[in-house]
């Protein structure tokens, strides 16, 4: 994280030294502020969770929020209304981008309280692995309380009618399945069939619409616009290939590529992109190591779920500019912090279980 922030600060400093247009100066400043806020989320979670119990409590709260978001989206899908404009907070006014609903293929695209259905679907798909891990291992709670969040989040993510959400959904499940016992795999297959059958009966044509998202090819304007923008993006990169033009200065007014990795490359150069990718890989490795060091099934399942969630988000970053969406970006750095906390707690547990070692006459022993 320090290396990534240093790359962003270096890029900002050089951009200001050489001068930037007035239209980019303010976005560059706000870009640094956003990076600082995300780093704060990461550090708070990474270093602030002092025990396993605290970590599980935070993840439970995260699943509750994800379930509430999913239920709101399902209500939007059923009613065709955003419902968000019903919320009135003294001193605040409703943001126009949160009070409308979109449609695709004749179906309502729910967005919950996110700024776009794409962001909404990706956030739900990334929270699904955590919900499944807690449902599998938190047996002190009733069956309905454990599995209702899984069903709600799964249904809402699919009904978001988003390619990126479906990709995140598939990647998350592929990363989770190897860690499940056979009984859980059978249950997941049954639940998947029930959800598919329910979707087929309650929303005729939805399965065909979802299939069409991946078979339409360049005929879809959202795909053709992205691919045609790559030439412009690489042309801008040629001016500052090492450290980029400054985080936040690759404005939508120039071109929209819907590819966060390409956006980072243009804004922070090859140095920033390498640091960003390393940040993701470090979080994945931390989750994997935490799973290896875990002493019980719950921590193994949670560690694998965090790995699946981070992997799902990382894959979708190739298909939308996730750091431009407040909810998706905050979730990403939140999960990075969870990965770091898992690794730290797993190492502490390993040390306590093994005890410090010493040598007596050249032979290892325990104290």
- What is the radius of gyration? 22 Å
- N- to C-terminal separation? 36 Å
Total strands: the figure is 4
The coarse overall form would be globular
Q: Report mean pLDDT, rounded to a whole number.
A: 81
Instruction: State the helical fraction.
Output: 55-70%
Beta-strand residue percentage:
under 5%
Order of secondary-structure elements: HHHEEHHHHHHHHHEE
Q: Mind describing the biggest β-sheet?
A: 2 strands, antiparallel
Structural class: mainly alpha
Enumerate how many helices there are, as a single number.
12
* Unreliable sequence segments: none
Strand order of the largest sheet: 1-2
Feature tags:
two-stranded antiparallel sheet, 4% strand, 367 residues, single chain, mainly alpha
Question: How is this structure best described in words?
Answer:
With 367 residues, this protein is mostly helical. The chain has helices at residues 2-18, 22-48, 52-79, 117-137, 143-158, 163-176, 182-202, 206-215, 221-237, 260-293, 297-316, 326-354, and strands at 102-104, 107-109, 357-360, 363-366. The strands form two sheets. The protein has a two-stranded antiparallel sheet. Helix 1 (2-18) packs antiparallel against helix 2 and helix 4 (117-137) runs antiparallel to helix 5. It starts with a helix and ends with a strand. The relative contact order is 0.15.
């Amino acid at each position: 994280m320090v290396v990534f922030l240093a790359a962003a600060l270096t890029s900002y400093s050089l951009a200001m030294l050489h001068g930037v247009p007035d239209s980019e100066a303010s976005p560059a400043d706000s870009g640094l502020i956003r990076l600082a806020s995300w780093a704060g989320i990461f550090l708070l979670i990474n270093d602030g969770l002092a025990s396993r119990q605290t970590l599980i409590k935070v993840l439970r709260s995260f699943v509750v929020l994800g379930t509430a978001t999913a239920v709101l989206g399902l209500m939007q899908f059923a009613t065709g209304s955003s419902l968000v404009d019903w919320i009135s907070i003294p001193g605040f006014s409703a943001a126009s981008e949160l009070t409308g609903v979109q449609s695709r293929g004749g179906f309502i695209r729910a967005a919950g309280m996110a700024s776009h259905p794409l962001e909404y679907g990706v956030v739900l798909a990334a929270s699904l692995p955590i919900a499944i891990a807690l449902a599998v291992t938190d047996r002190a709670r009733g069956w309905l309380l454990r599995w209702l969040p899984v069903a709600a989040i799964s249904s809402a993510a699919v009904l978001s009618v988003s390619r990126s959400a479906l990709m995140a959904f598939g990647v998350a499940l592929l990363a989770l399945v190897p860690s499940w016992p056979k009984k859980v795999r059978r249950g997941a297959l049954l639940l998947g069939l029930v959800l598919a059958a329910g979707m087929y009966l309650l929303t005729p044509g939805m399965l065909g619409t979802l299939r069409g998202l991946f078979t339409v090819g360049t005929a879809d304007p959202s795909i053709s616009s992205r691919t045609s923008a790559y030439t412009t993006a690489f042309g801008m990169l040629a001016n500052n290939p090492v450290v980029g033009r400054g985080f936040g200065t690759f404005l939508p007014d120039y071109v929209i590529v819907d590819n966060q990795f390409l956006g980072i490359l243009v804004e922070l150069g090859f140095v920033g992109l390498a640091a960003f990718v390393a940040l993701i890989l470090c979080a994945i490795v931390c989750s994997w190591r935490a799973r290896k060091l875990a002493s019980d099934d719950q921590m193994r399942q949670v560690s694998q779920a965090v790995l699946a969630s981070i992997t799902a988000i990382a894959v979708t970053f190739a298909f939308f500019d996730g750091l431009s969406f407040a909810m998706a970006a905050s979730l990403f750095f939140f999960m990075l912090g969870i990965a770091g906390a898992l690794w730290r707690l797993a190492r502490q547990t390993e040390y306590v279980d093994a005890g410090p070692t010493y040598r007596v006459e050249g032979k290892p022993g325990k104290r």
